[in-house]
Amino acid sequence: MKRKKIERLLAKSLTFSLIILLTIIITGEAFRDNNQLPEFLNDTILFIGKDFMPNLRGPVKQTLTRSSRFERVNDLNVDDLPNDTFSNEYHLEWAYNSPTNDTIFVERMRIPQDSVLERYFFSYNFLEATSNRLMKQANADFKEESVWLTRPKSFRFLPNGTFVFIISVNNKGGALVCADGSESIIWVSNDFDFHHSIEFDWEGNIWTCGTSKSTDNEDRQFSIPYVIAKLDPMNGKVLFSEKVDEIMNQTVFNESFRISKSLNKERNVFHLNDVQPINSDNYFGNKGDVLISLRNINTILLYDPFNKKVKWLNNQLGSMQHDVDVVNDSLISVFSNNLSLYGPIDSTNSITLYNFRSEAARSYKKESFEKFRINTGFEGLAEILDYEKDIFFVEETKNGILFIFEGDKARAYFKNGRGDTYKYLNWSKVELVE
Description:
With 434 residues, the chain is of the alpha+beta class. Helices cover 21% and strands 39% of the residues.
């Protein structure tokens, strides 16, 4: 009798657990579109769908990636988006998906003429085959069917006419590649799993984020081994790299962060998403220093790679921020997603300015974010191009819209998807033409 009761209890528990898992998976996409779940819970949903329910893997994969893979819903329709007349000219570097979602186009445009200066394409079949080949080179046990989402992003044009980008695999990092035309790759750097931003220093070297490929348990004991890296733009050779763990060992907050890491199953406390080189001496730093953004601990660092020294740290300038930039000799800007581990803490994203002379922070152009309801739940970036004239741009990555602001004027750039959707964007860049 007792055995039967135990079996019934176990059966009920298993059924209840399966119902919970199915509910999470089925509603996961709705939560993602409504921006109600922080990114680490989105990752958990995908983890459950892929690893704990192999019999449902095909349908789950389709549910989570088919309709939302390249298109996002925004509550602004086309008529609500700004299209003002600009006084200045700009260059826009961006990438978007074809109407059939099987090809990505890379463009360099002149604005406001909206003329295309350069245009290239990469089919997803080509990118997936390339990523499979590179991952197999790095890991002989790699199986091609384990790739369920390939996404190229962070395209940047170089002065010599080539361009670099990252092949992101399964919403994580991947190889950094350089191309000189459509599906024409001239070098590949596969030393790390690169992700997020690509920036250039005064010598033209590439600075980017990555994770170590190390499988050493000791190396991964406390957290994912994030690294900052500098690469040669001519051949992709790594010129410098350093683990974020080692950088954080210098900070007074390190012990509390390590306690948090021991409680964090994702081992993702030091989530690195931007490295911004300082390209000239200024009030707060020196040429060669870098600003580092660590999302999950809301922290911006000023770091001297040559002397391996943390020169400044602040964890009050944003919440799960994704971008930090130098504005002038005493001012930096931080693009904040305004999320916590429990959900949104504000109805829009924002830009925070920090003045090193006054040691004070303030919000910048909050009214623009509110007017157009700019609110990407993940990724996103913003850069002030001319502080005196209030010229800046914001990429609302999740919703597929890029806004350029020129004083009280604004223009929006996007590509229509199906129905009321816009094409997914991939970390764009805007430059003011002098």
